[in-house]
Specification:
Keywords: Signal. It comes from Palleronia marisminoris. The chain is mainly beta. It contains 1 helix and 10 strands. Strand 9 and strand 10 (130-139) form a beta hairpin.
Length: 164
């Protein structure tokens, strides 16, 4: 009887753990293909907080030597990209969009080009030790992240001026 109870409690543990995960939804995660000489690439993603708890996106882990949260800001007449170690807040019911010309992820230390049709596995890290997996699709520059988001063409995919 005790053995049966232990087995049942062990089997129920994953279900109980999953019921406590926050409702954070990751959509449209994309990185644009890079040139053979690129040492960095930007990642874009939409994150929806479908919970009643505020979170802060504090970091990202991926299979690169360095991955950081960054933001493009205007400094006078010059656009600069700066690391955002403090992260990005995500209030309950809010959508956080990491996109060109604004908040984004920098993947640095590329050892080979990122090729369209492949993907990059990553983990988004939030406050309260919440970790959410994300798969970034590698697409051709100019290929829209998803229907309805329009053309995201441009040539800021290499970001080679980021501390390399």
């Amino acid at each position: 009887m005790l053995r049966t109870a232990l087995v049942l409690s062990f089997l129920a543990a994953p279900a109980l753990a999953e019921s406590h995960l926050p409702a954070i939804i990751v959509e449209d995660a994309v990185i644009y293909a890079t040139s053979p000489t690129a040492k960095a690439a930007a990642g874009y993603v939409t994150i929806i907080n479908d919970s009643d708890t505020a979170y802060t996106l504090t970091g990202i882990e991926a299979g690169f030597p360095k991955a950081e949260l960054h933001e493009s800001i205007m400094d006078g007449d010059v656009m600069r990209m700066e690391p955002r170690a403090e992260g990005f807040d995500l209030a309950p019911g809010e959508t956080l969009t990491l996109e060109r010309g604004g908040k984004h992820v920098m993947f640095m230390g590329l050892e080979r080009p990122l090729v369209p049709g492949t993907d990059v596995k990553a983990t988004l890290i939030f406050t309260d030790e919440v970790r959410i997996p994300a798969t970034f699709d590698v697409r051709r520059p100019g290929q829209a992240a998803s229907a309805g988001h329009g053309d995201m063409s441009g040539s800021d995919t290499d970001h080679n001026d980021h501390g390399n």
